[in-house]
Predict the 3D structure of the following.
Amino acid sequence: MIKHFDHVTISVRDLEAAVNFFGLLGFEVDKSVVIAGEKFATYMGLDEIEADHITLAVPGMSPRFEVQLLHYRRPEAQSDPNIARLDKIGFNHICFAVDDAEATVEHLRSHDVEVRHELKGFHNRRLFFVTGPDGITVELAQWD
């Protein structure tokens, strides 16, 4: 039986920019390793994989939740030209609950993060879509 959500993994081209983006939301680097070799090639289904793997976490968050970043050295990561579209099949977006959505959005804007849209009053929440690393969609939710 499922206990809780554990992590999300995001493949990025600009590792530093992605670490900085999630740092704006309170995540800190917990682990940084390079994954390579047959064990990872078999598990990931990618011949000759070599990738930077950075685990980000918010200190003290319980239950623990991780954002894991992958930066492929090889093979070359494949771009998704529809990454920001919300009408495609597959991964849509990730959402983080925040205490004060307006303050969080202003903090992100002050660091040149694109805020796409705001939606008030949906299922007892105030919601914002922002553009994350490499164009992924990140949602922020403030519960009433």
In short: The longest strand covers residues 28-36. The longest helix spans residues 15-24.
